[in-house]
Amino acid sequence: MLAIDPRDGDGSSNAGWKGNRDIMQVITTVQEMLAWRSGWPTSRVVGLVPTMGFLHEGHLALMRLARAENDLLVASIFVNPAQFGPHEDLARYPRDLPRDLQLLEECGVNVVFTPEPADMYPVGFVTYVEPGGTLANVAEGASRFGHFRGVATVVHKLFQIIRPMHAYFGQKDAQQVAVISRMVADLNLSVMLRIQPTIREQDGLAMSSRNAYLEPVERAAATILYRALLAGQRAFESMPARAPASGVTRVMQKTVASEPRATLDYAEIRDPATFLPLDTLQAPALLLIAAKVGETRLIDNFLLRPNGIWETGRVQEKEE
Ligand code: AMP
Fold first, then answer.
1. Phi and psi dihedrals of 119, rounded to 5?
2. In the predicted model, is pLDDT for residue 36 greater than 70?
3. Of 80, 79, 76, 65, which Cα lies nearest the Cα of 195?
4. Looking at ligand 1, which residue's alpha carbon is closest to its atom 14?
5. Atom of ligand 1 at shortest distance to CA of 52?
6. Collapsing DSSP states into helix, strand and coil, what is residue 4?
7. Which of 86, 129, 225, 228 makes an SS bond possible with 255, Cβ 3.0 to 4.6 Å?
8. What pLDDT is recorded for position 12?
């Protein structure tokens, strides 16, 4: 898409751009990131992939696409305290910065932005982005009170600091995609969102940093979310258009109930943009599921696009 090799200039036209050909920059403060950003030539297309680190193939698929579509690729690693509830896993969220940096360098990332929480939320911080309405208050928003306020706030801050033309997100977090899309529209943010399919393990489990919490027996049981979605998809397809959506959610619930290690949080069918519940079967539709396997809370979804094509994600190909 772009004629310019992202790493080939010395940036002599701009004093702030250091133009290191092969060296990935790691930036740890907001101030330094702002200084770097203001030094980048305006002609260069900037892409951003926000993450919380402990990277897996789901993240790396976003990086590879972003690498191909931008001159300068910024990845952020920030475990955002504002999106965790008081009883959630902030303190034990898995972290491995050295490994993450190596993976990002291999993907050709130019800059890794990894700020400290006290820098993103200094003493006196009071201004949050508050998504409202159904979208922010059902499904994940109901189970994780304040979660989307934390997500919207940090993503808005990252957009302000890095000013990307393109920002990359995974369909795995379907409600996050909807909330951020709404924020971009509502606040007239000049960024183009690029949404990528869910990347799955060979057995269908959606990749997630939280999968690291699973004991081996739980890891086997965790495929129940994917199996429930498959069962829901089959039920959806076997029923006439406009049949009650409850027929499908019941099938998903029953599937999860068949796995003793899993506790269902919700199995729902919603509009993918507004998250309003769908009473009857129609496209577009999101089949959503959240369940605990042991103590680990997992989410997953299948998307039925308006054209009737299912987006169920992609199984990660085996390494040779
Ligand atoms: P996280 O580090 O969990 O905040 O995720 C960072 C980005 O990666 C978000 O846009 C996620 O939706 C995306 N992501 C996480 N897991 C996957 C996956 N299995 N497939 C595709 N994207 C993913």
1. -85, -40
2. yes
3. 65
4. 170
5. 2
6. coil
7. 228
8. 35
pLDDT over threshold 80, residue 49:
yes
233 lines ligand 1 (CB under 6 A): no
Cβ-Cβ contacts under 8 Å for 301 (sequence gap 6 or more):
171, 172, 174, 198, 229, 286, 287, 288, 289
Q: What is the 200 CA–ligand 1 centroid distance (Å)?
A: 11
Beta-carbon contacts of 254 under 8 Å, excluding residues fewer than 6 positions away, are 231
Between 318 and 258, residue with greater pLDDT: 258
Q: Which residues pair with 268 in a beta bridge?
A: 288
Residue nearest to atom 5 of ligand 1 (CA): 51
Report the distance separating Cα 316 and Cα 202, nearest Å.
6
Task: Find residue 50's DSSP bridge partners.
Answer: 76
What is the model's pLDDT at position 318? 61
Structural tokens at position 279:
């009473």
Total Cβ atoms within 10 A of residue 305: 12
- pTM (predicted TM-score): 0.93
Average predicted confidence (pLDDT) for the chain? 93
